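Repro case for the chain-ordering regression, as requested:
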Amino acid sequence: MANKEKLAEVFVSALGIPPEEVEAAEFKATRQWDSVGHVNLMNAIEESFDISLEPDDIMDFKSFKVGLEILGRYDLESR
Amino acid sequence: MAYLTINNVKIPGVAACVPKRVEENVDLPFFADRAEAEKVIASTGIARKRVCENGVTSSDLAVPAVERMLDDLGWSPDTVDCLFFVSMTRDYIAPQTACILQDRLGLRDGCFVMDLPLGCSGWVYGLSVVGSMMQTGQMRRGLLICAETNTKNRNPNDRAVRPLFGDAATVTALEYDATAKPMNFAFNVDGSGWEAVHMPYGGMRQPTTVESLKEVEVEPGVARKGTDMVVNGMDVFSFAIKRPPMQLKELIAHFNIDLNTVDYLLLHQANKFIDEKIRRSLRLPPEKVPYCMLDFGNVTNASIPLVMVTKIADSLQSKSNHCLACGFGVGLAWGSAEFYIENAKISELVEV
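-- result from build under test --
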């Protein structure tokens, strides 16, 4: 599964939002994505992609679009 | 970085007291459904907390813990030379609660007592203060009480904090001992981040007003009064996953600590995601970093001693334990310590 689709599934599962809202999802603007939701989301991403996100990346991860760029910097292909 | 070494002081005992009342996070009203609650529990590692009844203060929780520990150690109250009460939920703004505790606990009037209004860094900071007072031997027995009724100054309709914080009191006994191994400390503070965790009203900067007592929904799912504790989750999160691990690494380097000889890293029980970040950054195995947050939540300054009482009592009572600790939070302030606990008396958890 492509990383974008996999990340979208994680957003749906972790934040409980409909799939059609994923691409526009942003921290705070998306109701379920508050500080508690952010911990849920980061935890789910680390588990799903089997990575450990760097602190700066966790704090910069403020939208689906930016998150996809951040994940692009990790070595996901070999996992 | 401020460093400190304290000689001649050991930790002979630790005790804790929690309310009997349990609040399960799956039952909280603001989660959309059980699935959302379970996600929060999985990521924070906090399933339930102890919550004290109305009218019960942190000193009310502290007294049974101290009495149990004095009894278990065979210490008469009149042999205690100093008492420090670390808390942000003190009985009154004035007088300091430590004075009230001197009377309630039957300590003699020739006793040094003081409140330290510190949060999650409070046990480490408090240990350094009590240890500093005692290391010359003029004071031979001291009590470090860390107690907090977090559920009283956080709004129950704030979904960013209610799943996380619980109530507890702990007491750590300290005793002069010329053979004790040194305690080593590192401290940092960043006051520019004070708004990350703060109570806007009720102090002298912004006294309590009628308006400040009205509950307002500040964002969806987050309602609070001006006198409630504000916890800006993302600011705390950002700080906690960066600065404490850096400080621990600097403590280890400065005091030339061999991590292979460390039995336990005792972390402030912030939440599982944060604490696991810190553990992994030091490449320590899970068995060396015990957590009690599942059943007690984040009990701020009482976190570290509560882990000792509820998770590693057998080890602390039966052998020499080489420990690191790190407390971090409101201030922003954070402190790390290296110390040993050997054949200590760890009292059974008191529930009231």
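Ordering looks correct now. The longest strand of chain B covers residues 9-18.
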